[in-house]
Amino acid sequence: MAATVKYDQVEVGQEIPAVDYVVRRVNLVMYAGASGDFNQIHWNERFAKMVGLPDVIAHGMYTMAQAGRFVTDWAGDPGAVVDFGVRFSSMVVVPDDDQGATISVSGVVEEKLEGGRVVIGLTASSGDAQVLSKARAVVQLV
Amino acid sequence: MALNRDFIGKTYPPSAPYEVSRVKIREFAAAIGDGNPLYRDKDAAQAAGYPDVIAPPTFPIVFSLQSGGEALMDPELGLNFAMVVHGEQRFEYVRPVHAGDELVMTSTITDIRTAGRNELLTVRSDVSTVQGEPVCVTYNTIVERGGAG
């Protein structure tokens, strides 16, 4: 398969509208099981507070996965992503309630490369915090 | 405690093969809340030109956590796991991982450096199939909080 976005129809500076992803405690329990990362700071409030955190925090890779989903949903084909990197700049605190936390992801076309590739700059925030920095994906368009 | 700089450049040989299953990909996709049919439906994946269901871009963390961890467990390195947080992560893809892949990885500690009071360590893992086809390269930077004293 190939991306459904056309290289010729993409311009530098073009914005990809924000999408909100909700994360509740149950999502972190599922992610711990699926990824094999059972660090207690991601599910045990007592432990998280003992090591100086405000509450249970999401796995960084859970947040990165939401940014990845944002890119693959935009591109139309997960296989079109050729490079994907982030820095974890702040934590996503996930309270033990029905609302959980919200990770808001948006993007902008930063650069058009040779060979039909584009660089997408990503922004991810939760509350007032930018939870990813230097987040970018290179996507192969057609 | 400062990390042992002698570990920079140290390479860890290929791990035992990791078998990628449809069930594990579906479980991972469900955990991240991603309903993309290419992660769940073999027919949809094959119609899109893939041999089987493919995995989400961050899926390689599942097996890099399992085998890359070996490099970090060496007591001579001096890493205090209780203080470790994830600093940076990057994937370079040759192609998406798909069900049926049998993957091995070779991991190298490419850098250990101090940033403020923290110690940063980067592991590069080259992932290929057991047949020798390159699939992706992962770069994992962990932060040991307060490690530089």
TrEMBL record, chain A:
GO terms for molecular function: fatty acid synthase activity. Residues 12-107 form the MaoC-like domain. GO terms for cellular component: fatty acid synthase complex. Transmembrane segments: none annotated. GO terms for biological process: fatty acid biosynthetic process. Pfam families: MaoC_dehydratas (PF01575). PANTHER family: (3R)-HYDROXYACYL-ACP DEHYDRATASE SUBUNIT HADB, 3-HYDROXYACYL-THIOESTER DEHYDRATASE HTDX-RELATED. Belongs to the enoyl-CoA hydratase/isomerase family. This is Acyl dehydratase. It comes from Nonomuraea jiangxiensis. The lineage of its organism: Bacteria, Bacillati, Actinomycetota, Actinomycetes, Streptosporangiales.
TrEMBL record, chain B:
One of its GO terms (biological process) is fatty acid biosynthetic process. Pfam families: FAS1_DH_region. CDD domains: R_hydratase_like. GO terms for molecular function: (3R)-hydroxyacyl-[acyl-carrier-protein] dehydratase activity. Transmembrane segments: none annotated. Residues 7-136 form the FAS1-like dehydratase domain. Belongs to the UPF0336 family. PANTHER family: HYDROXYACYL-THIOESTER DEHYDRATASE TYPE 2, MITOCHONDRIAL, HYDROXYACYL-THIOESTER DEHYDRATASE TYPE 2, MITOCHONDRIAL-RELATED. This is UPF0336 protein SAMN05421869_106183.
